[in-house]
């Protein structure tokens, strides 16, 4: 399995009133790993674990806007493709393909709009942190803002470890 040396794309989203988003940008590594299917999922789980991104799972992306207030999240697409809506209603629609990795800062909204039948991702969290699922309901905001302010930066880039771009971008 090879890791490709990919320069990431970044996307910054403003608070839209429902989804708080983040002062840190979404980081996207396109076509960052070559293995696909269940072998790709297993490989990426091991890679994330070696870089202290654990509590992993395999599935898809919810088809409603949501965000996490207690942890950053990484998603690695290991099969298929999807159209995601990042950053809430006023955010950006983007197509992702197998091999893409998205590092989603705490507070950044995400939603699946459409996907191929085989679309699947591995998700994980820095240091195996827990996560919540908030949908931008009016009562969510005060506690969510407090939670987001307390979430530490990850120690390592989930794909490249100490040599990755993530911390350079987020600092």
TrEMBL record:
Protein name: Cupin domain-containing protein
InterPro entries tied to this protein: RmlC-like_jellyroll, RmlC_Cupin_sf, UCP019307_cupin, YjiB-like
Domain of life of the organism encoding this protein: Bacteria
PANTHER family, alphabetized: BLR7373 PROTEIN, CUPIN TYPE-1 DOMAIN-CONTAINING PROTEIN
């Amino acid at each position: 399995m090879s890791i490709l040396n990919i320069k990431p794309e970044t996307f910054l989203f403003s608070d839209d009133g429902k989804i708080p988003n983040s002062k840190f940008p979404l980081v996207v590594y396109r076509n960052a790993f070559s293995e696909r299917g269940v072998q790709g999922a297993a490989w990426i789980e091991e890679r994330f674990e070696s870089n202290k991104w654990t509590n992993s799972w395999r599935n898809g992306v919810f088809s409603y806007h949501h965000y996490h207030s207690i942890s950053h999240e990484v998603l690695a697409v290991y099969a298929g493709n999807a159209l995601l809506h990042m950053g809430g209603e006023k955010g950006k629609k983007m197509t992702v393909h197998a091999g893409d990795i998205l590092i989603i800062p705490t507070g950044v909204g995400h939603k699946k709009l459409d996907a191929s039948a085989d679309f699947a991702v591995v998700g994980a969290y820095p240091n195996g942190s827990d996560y919540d699922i908030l949908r931008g309901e009016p009562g969510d905001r005060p506690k969510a803002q407090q939670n987001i302010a307390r979430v530490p930066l990850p120690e390592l880039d989930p794909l490249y470890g100490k040599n990755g771009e993530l911390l350079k971008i987020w600092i």
